[in-house]
Amino acid sequence: MDSQTTRRHFFIGSLFAGAVPAAGFGSSASLRSLGYKSPNEKLNIAAIGSGGKGSSDITGCAAENIVALCDVDDKQAAAKFKEYPDAPKYKDFRKMLDKEAKNIDAVIVSTPDHMHATAAMWCMERGKHVYVQKPLTRTIWEARQLREAAAKYGVATQMGNQGYSNEGTRQVAEIVWSGELGNVSEVHAWTDRPIWPQGQTEIPSADPVPDTLDWDLWLGVAENRPYSAKAGPGGRGGFYQPFNWRGFYDFGCGALGDMACHILGAPNMALKLGSPTSVECIMKEGVSEFQFPKKSIIRFDFPARGTMPAVKLFWHDGLKESPKIPGVPDGELLGDLPGRPMRRQQGAAAGGQAPVQRPSGYVGRVFDMESYTAMKADPDVRPPNPDGSVFIGDKGILTTGTYGEQTRLLPVEKMRDYKMPSQFLTRSPGHYRDWIRAAKGGDPACSNFNVAAPFVEWMLLGVIALRTEGKIEYDAAKMRITNNVAANKYIKPMFRKGWSFV
Q: Do 409 and 419 meet the contact criterion of CB atoms below 8 Å apart?
């Protein structure tokens, strides 16, 4: 290989593998302790959170053995409970782990954000591999704790940000590193979230807790408060649960927590972002004392990284359409594409290259000029979803979708004759399979906690910026905001008595 390719391989190996524990992820000793003879044998998987997103996560791992299910709300989990009639059912994950530990190899954690870290820590302390839904944790301190625990206990980990498993995210990195865009100094990313109530200023009166719900267990680490069934404008279910919790400071991370781990994945990988020096919310609408605002723009400033220049990254949420970005040609469709879907990744790649075969279970779509032209000519095509990102370089511009899909240069006519750079990044076998393979002794998953925790840390600085006024300056080495002492209270959560894991 030439020296450039060698450097690329060295970088991506370090990025994906991180600091692997001395015993390795799923080392032969670990496999023997779990009773494996071969990585082809099935994992025994339990789930903490079986309704909502937990249901689809369980489906994603259904080729393995689903051996125990937990959910604090019988109504939300009813369909999944029925699908696995022989699996023991629990409301309290602590009891499930105590009683079923010998039967469990790995655990899916798909609870509201405020319970991710505690549930995952209980699992890892017992030697269980963990898949944890994005945004991994609600606070920076928790993210670091999970990364350290993964190394300490030698377990395989994965955060639920599917974009890191997708073809397009890797294409973004390969295009950027090829020099096609030149020096990238500005990125914009955006979403239509929140699609749940935010910016409310009044807490409604209390209501009786439904018989199917254990409200105390749902609150978990969070401060006790009455249950309310009054959802608010655009909400579903109760005021907090089961759908609207993302909008609350105490339970979620707002639009950032829902979509940033997806949409910002391509910029994080391609630009090797590391930690920002400063973060500032430069616009917010609909401010509340207990909820995130209805709409915001956040600016992250990253220093130069190796040969890459300093970059400013703008996060826009609460949008109804894709933003107008200076320097982007008028009339270009940005981010997610409308109408007809682009060709799946198993088909031909962009620019007329030969078909690229991908393992089954691989998600996302690659850009295809033929499909794009047909979509543009369709008079009934719907408007694009306001989700995606744009990279602005001094030689070119690139846009991609929510999960890194449909990656393309702008103006899009450049894609008609464009040849993608040679592939040098390892391709994922599929988002869930990536984690399952790691748990069986294979390579670390592409969004294992060595990769996910630093990414989440800088994203969570944006969450803090939403709760403070003015720019915050951050010292990553000390895990401390240096210019606003009061803001440091948001770095670590408050634990209700009996729920702390330290």
A: no
Q: Characterize 301-314 residue by residue with b for buried, 16 or more Cβ atoms within 10 angstroms of its Cβ, and e for exposed.
A: ebeeeeebbebebb
**Which of helix, strand or coil describes residue 72?**
coil
**With 90 as the cut, is the pLDDT of residue 107 above it?**
yes
User: How many C-beta atoms surround the C-beta of residue 126 within 10 A?
Assistant: 15
Q: Is the pLDDT of residue 265 over 90?
A: yes
Which DSSP state fits 331? T
**Residue located via tokens 């970059």:** 311
Backbone angles phi, psi at 285, to 5 degrees: -125, 145
- pLDDT tens-place string over residues 205-218: 999 999 999 999 99
Strand order, beta sheet including 184-190:
408-410, 397-400, 388-393, 184-190, 311-317, 295-302, 278-285, 472-475, 480-481
What are the structure tokens assigned to 395, written together? 């030689």
pLDDT of 360 above 50? no
| In CATH, 3-163+431-449 is 3.40.50.300 | no
Where exactly are the structural domains of the chain?
3-163+431-449, 167-425+450-502
pTM above 0.85, yes or no: yes
